[in-house]
Amino acid sequence: MTPLNGFTSDANNTLPLYVLDRDGFAAWNAQQPAAVQAWLAAQQFTATHTSVALLPGADGIAGAVLGVGDHADAYAYAHAPFALPAGTTWKVANPLDPISATNLQLGWGLGSYRFARYRKPLRAPAQLLASPSQEVLDVVTACLRVRDWVNTPTEDMGPQQLEDAARELVNAHGGALEVIAGDELLELNFPTIHAVGRASHRAPRLIVLRWGKEDAPHLALVGKGVCFDTGGLDLKPADGMRNMKKDMGGAAHALALAGLVMAQQLPVRLTLIVPAVENAVGPDAFRPGEVITTRKGITVEIDNTDAEGRLILCDALTYASEQQPETIIDFATLTGAARIALGPDLPALFSNNDELANQWLQAGDATRDPLWRMPLWRPYLRYLNSGIADLANSGSRMAGSVTAALYLERFINEGQVWAHLDVYAWNDGERPGRPAGGEALALRSAWAMLKARYA
């Protein structure tokens, strides 16, 4: 994994960093020497969001002002590590309340990231003199794990590597790991996972991690692990296939959240379930028009082989429901329709339980790690009608994210508390603190929600 950079405990040669919003800057600036005021005025610096101004001194840089917008947003500070000069170390010089100080550390850790597996970063981030809490370190680590896993090309991040990632969590925190792979999926009744993954040279598998005390509340996390999605025989065009290494982003979120739950010793009994496949094209690829009898016994007609994520998830969710957990949460890079509706930064939340949904939405507001609830509008089940089976895996272009969620809901037992997050897991371009590539979305808010629900 990419090391967690950006923090130092070495207090030598630190420079003062003033962390200010526009209102705070006006008061601070009024107390500065005339030369400093003139310097900042010449740059028209007013401490707007994601701005930085270096302060001159006799020997070079005397300090800096970091402009922030919303102090409760970790990303308000995340521009700092690469906006400030490489090789510099900074100490916060003005008082910050505990929430702002924590978010500064979160943002600094997130903003210091560059994916370094195949190419050395062009420069190192500036360092912050800080001793983050273990929780801050664990949260940042979880987010960076998602970025690393999603950024890694499929040849180095296939079903086996997802299994390895789960095994690393068990080795670090305890628990037990079970893996059902290849034709054993058929023997143990996981037919849709097998069907989607059978054409690849790498065996499909179901990864199941169990951790925690038997008498604790039971939480099940499920993540879509399509390590590459060609679209199958309904082949994607080149531009649609280009970044499909990220189609395991749901699994990355579930694995990272599981690691956070385990590292922070949340008092739950955790079951993590990841169906891991590669949706490849080959002589054994599943075909449009086939009918598969799922683990739940519901027959599904394959309308489109590019709607494969819901196929592997339906058997995984059935298995999760069989464990009778208190709560099931699944993460999936499931539909382009969710991105059209809400854009890349706002994951679509679907839930059959208002309390769970509201807890997550409130956590999203508090952490500034947002998501947006979408409706499980059951009349739209008509778009999944099949003429020869109980259900089709796809259908109309209408309400694509809603119909995908409705499909998944059919495999949740009645009365079971469930939430589904349709997440992009990706930054399309460079923004302050958000490098292009893999991204953890609604992961920090998921942790805040679970902590409030179970701690």
From TrEMBL:
Keywords of the record: Aminopeptidase, Hydrolase, Manganese, Protease
GO biological processes: proteolysis
Keyword Manganese: yes
GO CC terms, sorted: cytoplasm
Entry-linked Pfam families: Peptidase_M17, Peptidase_M17_N_1
Cytosol aminopeptidase domain ranges (all copies): 304-311
CDD domains: Peptidase_M17 (cd00433)
GO molecular-function terms, A-Z: manganese ion binding; metalloaminopeptidase activity
InterPro entries the record matches: Leucine_aapep/pepB, Macro_dom-like, Peptidase_M17_C, Peptidase_M17_N_1
Similarity remark: Belongs to the peptidase M17 family.
Name recorded for this polypeptide: Cytochrome C oxidase subunit II
Species annotation: Stenotrophomonas humi
